[in-house]
Design goal:
This protein has a domain of about 110 residues: Gcn5-related N-acetyltransferase (GNAT) (Aminopeptidase). The protein is an alpha+beta fold. The chain contains 4 helices and 6 strands; from the N terminus they run ααβββαβαββ. The protein binds coenzyme A. The site of coenzyme A has 22 residues, from β3, α3, β4 and α4. Keywords: Acyltransferase, Transferase. Pfam families: Acetyltransf_1 (PF00583). It comes from Streptosporangium amethystogenes subsp. fukuiense.
Length: about 160
């Protein structure tokens, strides 16, 4: 993922936000804010290589951020994954998670974590398939459009890093 994908990445993010089951966020950040919060080596896009004249069409993205600056958590990241509604159901999300798992394991990162609304069954199924386990549910942890929402914590502990 580079700045040239920025507009498409944020447009896909906005579509996911507007569906109301992906995140507590209600607005899309600027590209500068988005990029500054992410680890570039662990932020990937899936592109339709037969894209239009302006360049590759972005089908989806995955991006990871560090969770802590404490040494013990140096190998722990938190991620987000978003696929364009028109590109869902054909393996793009799985491919993005595979790319994230490969890049993080190659960098010695041992745990990928995230929080998912329990109503987001597509995300829970996608992550279960990619080897994430459910840690538990945080009850009414935050308000989303004025409604208290639960969040399921999920994580994947790499089997190859010991
Ligand atoms: C969740 C999301 C990323 C899945 O992306 P995707 O490209 O459609 O997923 P894939 O096609 O790779 O599906 C992989 C597996 O996930 C599961 N899955 C995907 N969509 C599903 C759905 N709507 N219902 C149930 N399971 C689903 C299936 O097990 C699927 O494997 P299968 O097709 O072999 O059965 C996509 O729905 C999305 O962008 N949602 C909005 C943003 C969001 O919620 N992001 C996650 C925030 S935590």
């Amino acid at each position: 993922m580079t700045a040239r994908h920025g507009a498409q990445v944020l447009a896909i993010y906005r579509l996911g936000i507007d569906e109301g089951q992906a995140t507590f966020e209600t607005t899309v950040p600027t590209w500068e804010h988005f990029e500054a919060a992410k680890l570039p080596a662990h932020s990937h896009v899936a592109v339709d290589a037969g894209g239009d004249r302006d360049g590759d069409r972005v089908l989806g993205w995955v991006a990871a951020a560090a969770v802590s600056d404490r040494c013990a958590y140096a190998g722990v990241v938190e991620h987000s994954v978003y696929v364009h509604p028109a590109a869902r159901g054909r393996g793009v999300g799985s491919a993005l998670l595979a790319a994230l798992i490969a890049s993080t394991e190659a960098a010695g990162i041992w745990t990928i974590q995230s929080g998912v609304f329990p109503e987001n069954t597509a995300s829970l199924a996608l992550h279960a398939r990619a080897g994430f386990r459910m840690i538990g549910t945080r009850e009414r942890i935050g308000r989303h459009h004025g409604v208290w929402r639960d969040v399921v914590l999920i994580e994947r502990r790499s089997p190859v890093i010991s």
